[in-house]
Amino acid sequence: MRILLTNDDGIYAPGLRALRTELQKLGTVTVVAPATEQSAAGHSVTLLTPVLVNEVYEDDGTTLIGWAVEGRPADCVKLALLELLKDPPDVIVSGMNAGSNAGINVLYSGTVAAAIEGAFYKHTAIAVSLEYEKRIYDFATAAHYARQVVEQILAQKPATGSLFNVNIPVLERGPVRGVKVLPQNVTPYTEKFDRRVNPRGRTYFWASPEFACPEPHPDTDVDALNESYITVTPLQFDLTDHARLKAMANWRWQVESSPS
Q1: Model confidence pLDDT, tens digit, residues 81-131
Q2: Which of 102, 111, 139 is closest to 6 using CA atoms?
Q3: Residues 221, 102: contact at Cβ < 8 Å?
Q4: Is pLDDT above 90 for 79?
Q5: For the segment 136-190, what is each residue's pLDDT rounded down to a tens digit?
Q6: Residue 231 pLDDT > 80, yes or no?
Q7: Do 178 and 152 form a contact (C-beta atoms < 8 A)?
Q8: Which of 98, 102, 107, 229 could make an S-S bridge to 224, C-beta 3.0–4.6 Å?
Q9: Taking the CA of residue 183 as centre, how many other CA atoms within 13 Å lie in the half-sphere pointing to its CB?
Q10: SS3 state at 207
């Protein structure tokens, strides 16, 4: 099996390294990932500047791990599929992200965006993230769980272009209770900004890392993560509101000719 591994935390991130070690049990892993952290980059791509690419090797200096890309997560997948890989991958895995990408965070996530880019190109793509508390990460154990989930997803032979979002719960909270397939929670998070003044008297704001989903929504990914379940959410990138589209077909539209 050929596996393309990417992320948004950067090619040297410990989460990616741990996941690569586990995924090598399933096949050949090639890494194409950002050279620097691109957290919350969403689905942005680089258009106005060149995208530099460098080969990255194991510590022995002879074994090629993959490529570090001076760009966004979506750039990495585009370049991998269109330029860098000799053969197309059987699956694209993005992660493992340091921090969950559940609920509305899916829209901001560079990790998920990289997986979406792979699904654009008709590849099965899986985003993987690890929830944390107090910035304590057990990436090795989380990668062990993630590899099993990836393996079981692939065993179902999903349709071409299938897209999945996987979140591993905080491991320090207790043992993982199982896997749940659930929709994402779309409740807005409560967020804060730290207001500060710089030495020149200019006001600036720093986004606080402390945010929470204020309303419990049973049977969604956020709540299941809080209950120590691994969550799997099938995603799609078609943002069309098909129910409203059908209703709007009966609207009567009128436009006037432009004035001469």
Answers
A1: 999 999 999 999 999 999 999 999 999 999 999 999 999 999 999 999 999
A2: 111
A3: yes
A4: yes
A5: 899 999 999 999 999 999 999 999 999 999 999 999 999 999 999 999 998 887 8
A6: yes
A7: no
A8: 229
A9: 7
A10: strand
Residues with Cβ within 8 Å of residue 14, at least 6 apart in sequence: 98, 137, 139
| DSSP assignment of 51-118 | --EEEEE-TTSSSEEEEEESS-HHHHHHHIIIII-SS--SEEEEEEEES---GGGGGT-HHHHHHHHH
Residues 6+ apart with CB under 8 A from 48: none
Pick the residue with more confidence: 198 or 212?
198
Tokens of 175: 């043992």
Can the peptide bond before residue 96 be classed as cis, meaning omega within 30 degrees of 0? yes
Q: Is 217 helix (H, G, I), strand (E, B) or coil?
A: coil
How many alpha carbons fall within 13 Å on the CB side of residue 72?
A: 21
In the chain, alpha helices (H): 14-23, 73-79, 110-120, 139-155, 221-226, 242-248
- Residue 257, token pair as written in the block: 């000719």
What span, in angstroms and rounded, lies between the C-alpha atoms of 4 and 20?
10
Alpha carbons 108 and 97: distance in angstroms, whole number: 13
Spell out the domains of the chain, with CATH numbers in brackets.
Answer: 2-186+215-248 (3.40.1210.10)
Instruction: Pull the structure tokens for residue 42.
Output: 């969403």
Going by pLDDT thresholds of 50, 70 and 90, the confidence category of residue 61 is: confident
